[in-house]
Amino acid sequence: MPDIITANRLADGVVVFQTAESTWSEDFNDAEVLPDAAATKAASARAAEDAARNLVVDVYAVAVETRNGHVVPKALREAIRAAGPTVRRDLGKQAQGLGPRSAPIAVGDA
Amino acid sequence: MYHYDDFDQAFVDARVAQFRDQVDRRLAGDLTEEQFRPHRLMNGLYLQLHAYMLRVAIPYGTLDARQMRKLAEIARVYDRGYGHFTTRQNIQYNWPALKDTPDILAELASVEMHAIQTSGNCIRNVTADHFAGVAHDEIADPRPYAEILRQWSSLHPEFSFLPRKFKIAVNGATHDRAVIQAHDIGLQVVRNEGGEIGFAVYVGGGLGRTPFVGRKVRAFLPERDLLGYVEAILRVYNLEGRRDNKYKARIKILMHEKTLETLKGEIEAEFEARDRALLDLPPEEVARVAAFFAPPALELKKPVSDRVERRRDKDARFASFLAANVTPHKAPGHVVVTVSLKPIGAPPGDCSADQMDAVADLAEDYSHGEIRVSHEQNLILPHVALGDLPAVYDRLASVGLATPNAGQISDIIACPGLDYCALATARSIPVAERIAQKFGDGAKARAIGPLKVKISGCINACGHHHVGHIGILGLERAGEETYQITLGGSGDENAAIGQIVGPGFSYENVVEAVETIVETYMGLRADASETFLDAFRRVGLAPFKEALYERSAGSDI
Ligand code: SF4
Asked: What is the spatial distance between Cα B120 and Cα B115, in angstroms, rounded to a whole number?
């Protein structure tokens, strides 16, 4: 199952994603998609070094899938974390165009 | 209001300086996250789903206009322009930066506020009736006792590393508005036959994974023994509470495992063994603290206002506001105004910086500068002259704060849930919003009458779902949000844990299920005066079960 690596930036807590260049981006869409467990392991090890260097905290891997041609987190929790509160579209990454490109998570009655 | 003395101020200022140093060292890399985490938690700073979250204590839910303005300023300058009032009478900021938190704490200290002991396995913010000092049915103002307990428990060396967090609530009226029986210690002010003030003491209440209603361990505890007895309870708990399993670490589990009689015996033995003089609470000290909470000198006024009556006759929404959000004050000609933070379709408990400023201005102009925060996530203007109600209402309405739904089905308690909380298993805010939209704040909601809906986004039960007349618990099943419904819970003096009605409902269907429950109640109630809770107590689960699972297609089984 493909993964991405996420964390929070230490100084301000902003959710960040690990890029293919091993940097951290606020944009979910910059996240490097890791195709297999070996890639996730290697990327996690690099991320752990950044945690040890006090750049980020709470590093972990998030399972992603492709829906309608867009990479999205599989779990609802991670989808909300990557986008922002579903009850405040004006806040979080969704407000800055930095969230997943898929349709927003439904809130109201259909 | 209590005011810091030099000692209090120096203590809080020193904590800010200490935390500033800790944050500096963390940012410089001199402290690891493991080393730093306990320090930040001791100062109310969590790492949540999207960002850090700062929980600020509002002791027993009382604050003044100046403090509310400071909360607004912090929301504006350091956060995203709003705050969230919680079921523990606190406020949470959802987006602060770690590097800014020492400055935020310094701002708070400048108005006698802090975030100490809003997290961690210690004695948390002591909560109280939000109508304290103004309620008609009050035996004594609970806040002096809450303040004394707060001072005693702040950084208490023996009780800073308890097996688990520890919550104390104090209620001073005959009607319990502080949910004391859902706390580790619940203190109910009572008078004995001689007319002396004391406390009925409840221990072992708590919600969460294993909910229990508190059990009475003392029918009358003399006022002077308050601290000694509470200390005895804490000592027994500190020694015997489980530390091997955090789900079994609260005093409610100890009570359950040991039985009421055994635990009570141990508390009494501990209390008897100690030197009473050490923690004696002399009446002079109670009087000294109580003086801070003396009611403002309110001019006696007529109990009827022509201005209010005229407005009531021609303005139906104002009339609804009067009926739902206005409560008599013990001083004639005055009222207590509940400012609903539950506008239809908005997150319960959220308040923008501009709204906070507006409430602060109103408090200054019409409520002797005082504001309360209720565990029901509303604000209170406690001392409003009856004749000022039209003006207060209009100003509240101009900032979207005149929703006339206090105590009704759309006045829902909801925890942050999966929209904000790292521990959540499902969303709670949008479920609350949808239920509120379904029933509104008009004739439909009024016809239903008093009905408390409480929603939690996980088993930790911050949304008090177990004591909701209708309780909703958001869970996750196979990657989907699922909502378990309980009925018949109650958080007042007749506290009860709600009963699970049956299998859960999907996010899509949960609102329809609530509608079915409400329709069933409306169909079977004896008359309009029989509340949902009364009707439930008369008929039990069966008719609701039948409506939900046998007749309706709404269930997901
Ligand atoms: S009940 Fe659960 S989801 Fe809700 S605030 Fe508490 S921990 Fe978070």
From this structure: 12
Residues 6+ apart with CB under 8 A from B77: none
Of all helices (H) and strands (E), which one includes residue B476? Answer: strand B470-477
CA distance A81 to chain B (A): 6
pLDDT surpasses 90 at A106: no
B501/chain A closest Cα distance in angstroms:
23
Task: Determine whether the interchain pair A12/B99 forms a contact, defined as Cβ–Cβ distance below 8 Å.
Answer: yes
The answer, yes or no, to whether residue B556 has pLDDT greater than 70, is no
pLDDT confidence of A1, banded at 50, 70, 90?
Answer: confident
The backbone region for B25, taken as left when phi is positive above 0, alpha when psi lies in -120 to 50, beta otherwise, is: alpha
* Full set of structural domains in chain B with CATH: 6-109 (3.90.480.20), 135-293 (3.30.413.10), 306-398 (3.90.480.20), 414-555 (3.30.413.10)
Instruction: Please state, rounded to an integer, the average pLDDT across all residues of chain B.
Output: 96
DSSP string across B182-244: GSSEEEEEEE-TT--EEEEEEE--B-TTS-B--EEEEEEEEGGGHHHHHHHHHHHHHHHS-SS
Among B418, B425, B456, which residue has the most ligand 1 atoms within 8 Å of its CB, making it the best to mutate? B456
For ligand 1, residues with CB inside 6 Å are: B 415-417, 421, 423-424, 456-458, 460-463
**Residue B553 has what pLDDT?**
52
What are A37-85's pLDDT values in tens digits?
A: 999 999 999 999 999 999 999 999 999 999 989 999 999 999 999 999 9
Task: Identify the band that residue B301 occupies on the pLDDT scale cut at 50, 70 and 90.
Answer: confident
pLDDT digits (tens, 9 = 90+) for B114-173: 999 999 999 999 999 999 999 999 999 999 999 999 999 999 999 999 999 999 999 999
Residue whose structure tokens are 């002077």 = B224
Alpha carbon distance B423, B432 (integer Å): 19
Strand B334-339 relative to strand B350-352, pairing: unpaired
Q: What percent of chain B has pLDDT over 70?
A: 99
| pLDDT for A110 beyond 50 | no
Contacts of A76 in chain B (CB under 8 A): 418, 476, 479, 481
DSSP output for B71-130: HHHHHHHHSSSEEEE-TTS-EEES---GGGHHHHHHHHHTTT---TTSSSSSB-PPEE-T
ipTM: 0.96
Give B432 Cα–ligand 1 centroid separation in angstroms. 14
Distance of alpha carbon A96 from its chain centroid, rounded? Answer: 15
The answer to whether B97 contacts A12, with C-beta atoms less than 8 Å apart, is: yes
Contact A87 B97 (CB under 8 A): no
User: DSSP 3-state assignment of B457?
Assistant: coil
pLDDT bin (cut points 50, 70, 90) of residue B552 is: low
Q: Compute the distance from residue B416 Cα to the ligand 1 centre, in Å.
A: 6
Cα of B427 from ligand 1 centre, angstroms: 9
A&B contacts, CB < 8 Å: 80
- Residue B11 DSSP label: H
Inter-chain touch B418–A76, beta carbons under 8 Å? yes
What does chain A come to in residues? Answer: 110
Report the separation in Å between the CA atom of B425 and the middle of ligand 1, taken as the mean of its atom positions. 8
Distance CA B100, CA B104 (A): 6
Type of residue numbered B310: R
